[in-house]
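Review form for a predicted model. The reviewer records the input and the model, then writes brief findings.
Reviewer: anonymous (R2)
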Amino acid sequence: MHRMIATAVVVSASAALFPAAPATAAASAPKAAPKAAPKAAPSVVVAPEVTSAACKKPCNRKIVNDYPYKTSSWHKADPWNFYRRECVSFAAWRIRQRLGVKFHNHFRGVQWGNANNWDNAARRARVKVNRTPKVGAIAQWNSGRFGHVAYVARVNRSTVVVEEYNKGGTHRYGTRTIRRSSVQNYIHF
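Model under review:
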């Protein structure tokens, strides 16, 4: 089951512990020389920074369940504003972790929501959608009540290997080798 989360703001714990200093009149005055002051913790955190880069050509990455919320409650939202252990949360995490895209549920001003909306959201956000698989693409289906998305980990002659969460409502990680043509859409970030 995939559920859409209403727009919410995630406030970091560090912001609650270390709030930014209030603005003063002195802050608007010209400064004599720049000073290296420690940066204040942000008060709103969309998601953690990404350090990895996408494959520039087809490549095989290690296929492993390294999703950080694999034992978390699926009733809580992840930092990208999707429910944990749902296919959309895992796909969002893979997009961030493997592709280096700062993806979240309101990427490029569009609400992505349930998996059956991702193809339309991608088009509105000017993200390429087609029927051609590529390593790093998101496989997307509109069927069922909520649809489904999965990360394309390998592309073979007539099949693709996908990594996914919550196929069949299990809230668990899995991999499948499926026919390339069985995927309704491939979304390319």
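Findings: Confidence is low (pLDDT under 50) at residues 1-54.
Further findings: The CA atoms of residues 94 and 151 lie 7 Å apart.
Recommendation: see findings above.
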